[in-house]
Design a protein that fits this description.
- With 335 residues, this protein is of the alpha/beta class.
- Helices cover 35% and strands 20% of the residues.
- It has 10 helices and 16 strands.
- The protein has an 8-stranded parallel beta barrel with strand order 3-4-5-10-11-12-13-16, surrounded by 5 helices. Strands 1-2 form a two-stranded antiparallel ribbon. A two-stranded antiparallel ribbon has the order 6-9.
- Helix 1 crosses helix 2.
- The longest helix is centred in the middle third of the chain and has 17 residues.
- It is globular.
- The two termini are 21 Å apart.
- The C terminus is likely disordered.
């Protein structure tokens, strides 16, 4: 699988990365064996970039991912986690479904973007992972904590990078505006932008992606299916975690029909789309089973002909000024 390095670092990522929120029991439980099989399937597919966070299953994702990767040669993969939420013990019982995870509420999340909080969060993550280092650390969802994130947390990430504790630093959010500010005002290496650069939502193209290209910052794109609509558009499908509006659903259905006329799939087009912009280093896809991983990897490698993008522009399903990927000469050969 093709790889790129992040920013000006030597940290490589495969173009398709494994997002580990699903194996943290996102929405519904996943058994230990199924979680391990998902990571193994990703490895067998050539994936060498893995992303997790303390937030995912209040530590369950990190524990499972670390256990699955521990026997692999440490230099052969890139691992990222996140800081900004500390996990503190909680004995009140109940579950964590209010935060989206089907796990017992054994801990509470405490927002902390202080320098000390960054260090503690990373140390706690390493303990859960059972590994001696991570390669990339992201500030996680600092939307409501901008001042502390910029003045305390980010400088601490710079110190960790200078010390060689981590190889690359960044920020991960579900918005593009603050990520653009990080790109303009700091010296981070990568941003993880979820949901804001897809076939249905190109808000990242306004400020973030041009700034990243100018500054040599890599962009990893998450949420390429916009929480489900671009994976399986149908009545009731979700867009940004809410029922899709009729107009958005119609656009997705038209894109699906167009993809099928060109011998490909909407999922393949959604996975390919971000790579039309030169700042994009990879896409991160959340999967929760070996079958999902295998299917997504196949869609990632599937042929999306140039004629699909051309007709999508002509039909005004994507803007005429939106950059699109080009199929390789090999992919453009008749099947």
């Amino acid at each position: 699988m093709r790889t790129r390095t992040l920013g000006r670092t030597r940290v490589p990522v495969t173009a398709f990365g494994f997002g580990a929120a699903g194996i943290g029991n996102l929405y519904t439980p996943v058994g230990d064996d199924a979680a391990r099989a998902a990571v193994d399937a990703a490895w067998d597919a050539g994936v060498r970039a893995y992303d997790t966070a303390p937030h995912y299953g209040i530590g369950l994702s990190e524990r499972r991912l670390g256990a699955a990767l521990r026997a692999r040669p440490r230099a052969s993969y890139t691992l990222s986690t996140k800081v900004g939420r500390l996990l503190t013990p909680y004995e009140g019982g109940g579950d964590d479904l209010d935060h989206g995870f089907a796990v017992p509420a054994t801990h509470r999340r405490v927002w902390d973007f202080s320098a000390a909080g960054v260090r503690r969060s990373l140390e706690d993550s390493l303990e859960r992972l059972g590994l001696d280092r991570v390669d990339v650390v992201y500030l996680h969802d600092p939307d409501d904590h901008a001042e502390q994130a910029f003045t305390e947390a980010y400088p601490e990430l710079e110190r960790l990078r200078a010390e060689g504790v981590v190889g690359a630093i960044g920020a991960g959010m579900n918005q593009a505006e603050m990520l653009a500010r990080f790109v303009r005002d700091t010296d981070l290496d990568v941003v993880l932008c979820a949901g804001r650069y897809s076939l249905l939502d190109q808000r990242a193209l306004t400020g973030l992606l041009p700034a990243a290209a100018e500054r040599g910052v890599s962009v990893v794109v998450g949420g390429v299916f916009n929480s489900g609509l671009l994976a399986d558009p149908k009545p009731g499908a979700t867009f940004d975690y809410a029922a899709a509006e009729p107009g958005t659903l119609d656009r997705a259905l038209r894109l699906k029909a167009l993809a099928e006329r060109h011998g490909t799939t909407l999922r393949a087009a959604a996975l390919a789309f971000p790579f039309g912009h030169p700042a994009v280093a990879g896409v991160l896809v959340g999967t929760r089973s070996a079958a999902e991983v295998t299917d997504t990897a196949a869609q990632f490698e599937a042929r999306v002909p140039d004629a699909f993008w051309q007709e999508a522009r002509e039909a005004r399903l994507i803007g005429a000024d939106i950059p699109v990927p080009r199929a390789s000469p090999e992919q453009e050969q008749p099947a």
